Amino acid sequence: MGAIMEAINDITKIAVILIFIGFILGLAVGNAIANPAQNNYTTTTTTQTTSDQPAKQPTAQIGGCNMTDREAEALNDYNRRISEENLRLQNLVIAKNGTILDQKFEIDSLNAEIGRLKFEISILKEVIESKNK
User: Do the Cβ atoms of 55 and 48 come closer than 8 Å?
Assistant: First the structure.
């Protein structure tokens, strides 16, 4: 019986250690996923050593891709324009939703007014019928 309890104790210790290691790895991977590397790039320039080689443009590395500074700047400008366009479209959708909501409230109030008028008409009909009798 004592050997079984010792084995369970050892297995429990191993399980706790593995859970702890998994937790640490999970934190590291989760942090890497939640906070991806920004598109800050470092510029590297190369110098021409002989006249036979074509001149090389300075390159930048963004997201693991090498590109020229001009390409990197164009990509950043494109991303900025896309973000601005998305914001404009979101504001447009919000404005349209607000307009639609206002129209729904107006329709509801008109329906309530129609219901009230129908009720008044029915009462007036009853009054007229009672006078005619």
Answer: yes
Q: Which residue has the tokens 């129609």?
A: 114
Q: Phi and psi at residue 62, in whole multiples of 5°?
A: -125, 120
Q: What is the CA radius of gyration of the chain?
A: 37
Does residue 44 contact residue 58 with C-beta atoms inside 8 Å?
yes
Average pLDDT for consecutive 10-residue bins of the chain (133 residues)? 79 89 83 64 53 58 68 85 90 83 86 93 91 83
How far apart (Å, rounded) are the C-alpha atoms in residues 115 and 130?
23
Q: Find tokens 């590109």 and name the residue.
A: 67
pTM for the whole structure: 0.35
Which tokens go with 40? 């800050």
